[in-house]
Amino acid sequence: MLLKTVLLLALVSQVLVLENGLLRKPPMGWLAWERFRCNTDCNEDPKNCISERLFMEMADRLAQDGWRDLGYEYLNIDDCWIGGRDAKGNLVPDPKRFPNGMAFLADYAHSLGLKLGIYADMGNFTCMGYPGTTLDKVVQDAQTFAKWKVDMLKLDGCFSTPEERAEGYPKMAAALNATGRPIAFSCSWPAYEGGLPPEVNYTLLADICNLWRNYDDIEDSWSSVLSILDWFVTHQDILQPVAGPGHWNDPDMLLIGNFGLSFEQARAQMALWTVLAAPLFMSTDLRTISAQNMDILQNPLMIKINQDPLGIQGHRILKEKSHIEVYVRPLASEASAIVFFSRRTDMPYPYRTSLARLNFTSSKVYEEWSSDLLSGSPMNYVIDFPARRRPYRLTLPGSDLGSFGSPIKLFFSQVVVIWTWGQGLIRWGLWVALHKVLVSDFTSHGRCMASSGSSFHRDLQTILLAMPGLPPAPVIPAVPSIMVVVTAQ
Ligand code: GLA
To answer: CA torsion sign, 453 to 423 to 28 to 204?
Structure first.
């Protein structure tokens, strides 16, 4: 009896919990689908078709252009790679497009310090009609992926019934576990059930999946980004609590670098996905991406916030009649990221607020961050500093503030606020600055950094200048736009 119970418990825990310890932070990487879709025409379009070549070239870029070192480590295949099943029922890749097989591609990725993700579908066919993983094939396919040394599986849900999915996703989690290889598990399951309880059991999902698509596919347009954002915000009370280290909501890929977003929209998607603790899967051509888009995707502050160890998903705290929205994500070291998001479509808009109004009551403030990278330029922002009880106009540093670590001359009545992220300490330059002391005097306390020109902070120590009492109205970003402020609680 006891043995039976133990065996049963072991079985239940194996079935219900994906114990891979992976993705304590939202995954970052590159995913083929949004940009390269199901282009299988390697004769006409050899450079862009879904093939070994495409993935190897992206792997090279990830490794050589700084992506991997910033955390973009997953190289993920999506639909349209499957050639069929062999005589034993094993999945095989299309032999023309993947002549060396998937184990070869995994080895190649690993040799560059990357991880390989693959795609399958819990159902009769993949969404594009390639062979699916039916219930009887779940274990076999998991073993195949492990044999190839795959590191992540996206399991789609086309061509199946709700009952098959309810059985198949937990079964795949158990099968992946049983391979002994740590394979991150990305489940599209909730997206097929409408994304909400009671059809979706997020408690169960958090146990068996490392991330999950909740909602519609992203398309290369701003309206698509907004529709996804709106859905996530509408249901944030349900979705926000279910995300955390090892299990993430996935609003789908980043479009940055493609054709549908303006510069400001691209920055907005990056900041919103960051504050939502979303997986950061780029889907763009890394061989031809512009420096400007690369800068957005490689913004170290965005990445640092996205990868914050607490793993708390941010949420919208304020929706103004003026179409300015405020999002907050609590971070480690008692910091918070605040995103000001303008949905206006007319012109830059003067927006007044204060930390107090946003419920940041402590006087132990402030890092303010924003830069010409993620916000319109020039950016001004009025905030009531509780300690001073009067508003200041914060202005982003211009291009001549010097570079990292170098002394910066301050003028009378300017205020510098510095937040040293790493040590979790606020360093006050306020009084120093008011007394016309050079910043170099307090760089000895902690390194200072100012943005220089259009390049932006390469670290989190940031300077903003605040000019007390200056009359001009503050302006919140040109539309649509983003400003990010990091503050201590
Ligand atoms: C579904 C998924 C997409 C993509 C396609 C591939 O639509 O949601 O992310 O994987 O299938 O066919």
So the answer is: negative
